[in-house]
Amino acid sequence: MRRPLLFAAVGVANTAVDFGVFLALTRVLGVGPVAASALGFLTGSAHSYVANGLLTFGDRGARLASAARVLRFAAVTALCLGVSVAAIAAALPFLPDVAAKAVSVLATFAAGYLLSGRFVYAAPAQAASAAGGGAGAGPVDPIQPREAFVGDRRDGGRGG
């Protein structure tokens, strides 16, 4: 239960950064809501990469300075940005801009969690398996910690 709670807490902080940038751009600088939403999303995403890498998925041994990890994060972020922008654009004809932004946040939360756990912060063996490189490894559960971590304090050092 620890990992989803950490992801949610980081998500709240990311959302605060996202909304703060969105409000500053729309209210202070007069930027349109779709562009402001995209910039807020990207700023929150930068925070997300570091905070989730250190806090939520830190026990998986993910190196944040890994070029491959940064590229996977960029791909997941691009996908989630598309979901975010599409959601706010679809909601704007029916809702005020802040409510439409809230819809976009909800639309990206689940996708971001699943993709982050599966592709961005997965242990190396999990990332290969999730990408189709593991023979018969089965699906990776982004909520559960890496099972093959020998000496993990959570399992009393039994090794999974």
Automatic annotation (TrEMBL):
Residues 149-160 have a biased composition (Basic and acidic residues). InterPro entries: GtrA_CellWall_Glycosyl, GtrA_DPMS_TM. It is found in: Membrane. Its main location: membrane. It is a multi-pass membrane protein. It comes from the Bacteria. Keywords: Membrane, Transmembrane, Transmembrane helix. It holds the Pfam family GtrA_DPMS_TM. The chain crosses the membrane at residues 34-58, 70-92, 98-116. Residues 133-160 are annotated as: Disordered. Residues 7-120 form the GtrA/DPMS transmembrane domain. Belongs to the GtrA family. This is GtrA/DPMS transmembrane domain-containing protein. The lineage of its organism: Bacteria, Pseudomonadati, Pseudomonadota, Alphaproteobacteria, Acetobacterales.
